[in-house]
Design brief:
The complex is a heterodimer of chains A (about 325) and B (about 425). Chain A is built from 14 helices and two strands. By secondary structure, chain A is mostly helical. Among the domains of chain A are: about 80 residues, no CATH class; about 120 residues, MetI-like (MetI-like fold), CATH 1.10.3720. Chain A is flat, with a radius of gyration of 27 Å. In chain B, strands 1, 2, 3, 4, 5, 6, 7, 8 and 9 form a nine-stranded mixed β-sheet that branches. The longest helix of chain B is centred in the middle third of the chain and has 25 residues. In chain B, α2 runs antiparallel to α14, α7 crosses α8 and α9 runs antiparallel to α10. The termini of chain B are far apart. Classes of the chains: A mainly alpha (about 325), B alpha/beta (about 425). Chains A and B meet through α13 of A and α3, α18 and α19 of B.
Chain lengths: ~325, ~425
């Protein structure tokens, strides 16, 4: 006769604590094991990304002409006070950046999704259309700027040609890049042309992960096309939508080349954006402190928008 | 045997290392000393060819030196200087406008080598006029070697003037406005400008400022001895400028650049262009009949000529200052200058070189320079870089009708006061 004595079961709280310790230990061991593999990329990231960012923030508290050997004078928050209260262009640039981000989140994202949905169906010449819409995305922005600048040319641009074609002289009189109230949106049209195809490709990739069984099951349950899209396709596209939204925000906040190439920020700085104004202050006016203060503001805005959005979407993913 | 190979391997290694070090430190693969020169791309292709010919002549006479030219358009050149000077990427020689606003910032930042020893060695002080030497010594040392002395005036299409009934060249500002009015009435664009490069339209604003404020008033404003907010002539200037931009400039000027707008002059669509003496060659290169083009100074009433100087500077961290000085000595020599002014149709900085054998258009600059009683300089050379950026913003606000000319002076002065 043998008696088996089972060890007393540990209390539930202790159990969780032990499990957490095990996980923590395993994570620690995993991190240490991964460190040699991470180190090169981490070092490059620290040197080429974090380092310049820290240096940029540091320089925003100094007055400096940007020349090697020229003295850097610590001025505290003076550069920030100047950009917020005295700089005649900063608020225009900030306003334009905000407008650009909002428009970018609406128009090219929606257009990219619509194109992806359309070109995800069996269609004659589907691949040719996909390539056609994607091509602007691989062109250099400065080349796109040059092309659109010629299209908007007030003497022999598209407006002039259309005016002659349709006998509508008012078309020739539109100053696409010369009208302060229109210029930013004229440049934005070129941006949409450039970026919509890239969004389309990302959404197309996402659409491949939508299970056809789910779509068919929804249809069998009597769902109409909108209901299928709203309740099946769109939730399945959430991961790729996060990527598209984050990339769009980042691309639109740092927009630079198109504006330099098409208006240079003019007329009268009416198409300035923060990235270009930061560059102009640093390299054009030799006000490195001001330029870096604007860059720091841009960095803070980016973090304020992007980080909470990514955290929120990560939580949504976890819950689902 | 292995021991016997060691010395040979050592010698071979030493030879290789010596060979490699010989190729570094600014020398070229051919063992020549490379002297890099950052300069502007000339607007006229023939002027470029002439400069390349001058460089070839120098290299033939100095086979141990290679002149490596990096050319850029105006704004790209400014960007290149701002990003490379003071760093290892700086050239040995850089071209720059000599005014305190543009070139001055580079000198003050210590980017230019004091060339006093080379001025003594080559006797350069006797080669240049007092005016051009003043641009060299204005910062207390000897910065740069004069390259060009530029004058700017109104180029006009004689046929279009005749077509509009403008019988005589305007000699006063009011006559100029009357001529513009006649041209406009005849359906001709009176004058062309490209607004995306702000310095192009600035020429018109500067010249009206000289006309309305006079020579002393102009100098007082650009040196900040007078307030832009308080001088009535500033308001008159911006009011006139606003009238020109709304009535007499090519439509849509604000959204095209100077090259695009110049095409309107070459094609006979615009009657006037406010350009410098370098434009003679552009007129020829773009196929205009030279005999249909005339030049007259902007009638400011002060007899000062609109213009500026351009110098070549040796960088303070150049490893080849001696070779660079040798090249600049040749570039400003009588032999090289005679070739250069033939292509530029301009005045030489070398006082011993006079224009010879040029066309009627080239010859027209002679009396303009001779009759000038001083120079009023482009304001992007007078003002600091930040002030220039603001000056252009105010200029363009008035040009696009977004700012009342009566408030323009005060708007600019506010910025100056905050600096």
């Amino acid at each position: 006769m043998s008696t088996t004595i089972a060890p007393p079961a540990p209390p539930a709280g202790r159990k969780r604590s032990v499990a957490r310790k095990r996980v923590a230990k395993a994570s620690h061991v995993g991190f240490v094991a991964a460190l040699p593999f991470l180190a090169p990329a981490l070092a490059a990231y620290l040197v080429f990304v974090i380092g310049p960012m820290v240096e940029s923030v540091r320089l925003s508290f100094f007055e400096w002409s940007g020349f090697q050997g020229a003295p850097q004078e610590f001025v505290g928050l003076k550069n920030y006070v100047r950009i917020f209260t005295q700089d005649p262009v900063f608020w225009t640039a900030l306003g334009n950046t905000v407008i650009w981000v909002i428009l970018s989140l609406v128009i090219p994202v929606a257009l990219g999704l619509v194109l992806a949905l359309a070109l995800n169906r069996p269609l004659f010449g589907r691949n040719a259309f996909r390539s056609l819409f994607y091509i602007p995305g691989v062109l250099a922005p400065i080349a796109i700027a040059n092309m659109w600048r010629w299209m908007y040319n007030p003497n022999f641009g598209v407006g002039v040609t259309l005016a002659e074609m349709f006998n509508a002289p008012w078309l020739a009189e539109i100053q696409w890049l010369g009208d302060r109230n229109l210029a930013l949106y004229s440049i934005f049209a070129a941006f949409v042309w450039q970026i919509a195809g890239t969004n389309m490709v990302l959404f197309l990739a996402g659409l491949q992960s939508v299970a056809t069984e789910h779509v068919e099951a929804a249809k069998l349950d009597g769902a109409n096309a909108w209901q299928v899209f709203r309740n099946v396709t769109l939730p399945a596209l959430r991961p790729v939508t996060v990527v598209v939204v984050v990339l769009t925000i980042i691309n639109s906040i740092k927009v630079f080349d198109l504006i330099v190439g098409m208006t240079g920020g003019g007329p009268a700085q009416s198409t300035q954006v923060l990235a270009l104004w930061s560059f102009t202050q640093s390299f054009g006016n030799h006000e490195y402190g001001m330029g870096n203060a604007i860059a720091t503001v841009l960095l803070v805005i980016t973090l304020i928008i992007v980080v909470p959005y990514m955290v929120w979407t990560a939580r949504q993913e976890k819950h689902s | 045997m292995r021991a016997g190979l060691r010395p040979a391997a050592f010698v071979a290694g030493a030879v290789m290392i010596a060979g490699l070090t010989g190729c570094s430190g600014g020398g070229s693969d051919s063992g020549k000393t490379e002297v890099t020169w950052f300069k502007l791309t000339e607007t006229a292709s023939t002027a470029n060819d002439t400069i390349n010919g001058v460089i070839e002549n120098f290299e033939e006479a100095n086979p141990d030196i290679d002149i490596v030219v990096e050319e850029r358009s105006t704004d790209a050149h400014k960007d290149a200087l701002r990003t490379t000077l003071g760093t290892n990427g700086a050239p040995d020689i850089f071209f720059s406008w000599a005014g305190p606003g543009l070139g001055g910032e580079f000198i003050e930042a210590g980017a230019s080598l004091n060339l006093e020893e080379y001025y003594d060695e080559y006797g350069w002080a006797e080669r240049f006029s007092e005016t051009t030497m003043a641009t060299v010594t204005q910062y207390g040392g000897y910065d740069g070697v004069p390259y060009t002395q530029r004058g700017e005036a109104l180029f006009y299409n004689k046929d279009l003037f005749a077509q509009a009934g403008v019988d005589a060249v305007p000699t006063t500002y009011d006559e100029l406005v009357a001529a513009a009015e006649k041209l406009k009435a005849a359906g001709i664009t009176p004058i062309q400008f490209g607004g995306t490069v702000n310095w192009h339209v600035m020429r018109l604003l500067d010249s009206i400022l000289e006309a309305k404020c006079g020579a002393d008033g102009y100098q007082a404003l650009v040196t900040k001895e007078a307030s832009w907010a308080e001088e009535p002539c500033v308001t008159e200037t911006f009011t006139e400028f606003g009238k020109w931009t709304s009535d007499y400039l090519n439509p849509g000027f604000i959204s095209i650049n100077n090259d695009e707008s110049s095409a309107l002059f070459f094609s006979g669509e615009a009657a006037m262009a406010l350009e410098g003496d370098w434009f003679n060659q552009s007129v020829r290169d773009n196929g205009m009949d030279e005999s249909t083009v005339g030049i007259f100074p902007f009638p400011t009433g002060t007899n000062r000529l609109y213009g500026f100087n351009e110098n070549n500077y040796i960088t303070s961290n150049s490893d080849h200052a001696d070779e660079a000085a040798k090249f600049l000595d040749y570039l400003t020599s009588e032999e090289a200058q005679q070739e250069l002014i033939a292509a530029f149709g301009s005045q030489s900085v070398n006082i011993n070189v006079k224009p010879e054998g040029g066309s009627e258009l080239d010859a027209a600059w002679g009396p303009i320079f001779e009759n000038a009683e001083g120079v009023y300089m482009n304001n992007d050379q007078n003002l600091s870089l930040a002030e220039t950026t603001e000056y252009w913003r105010v200029q363009n606000l008035v040009a696009t009708g977004e700012l009342d000319p009566a408030n323009a002076g005060a708007e600019f002065q506010k910025f100056i006061d905050q600096q």
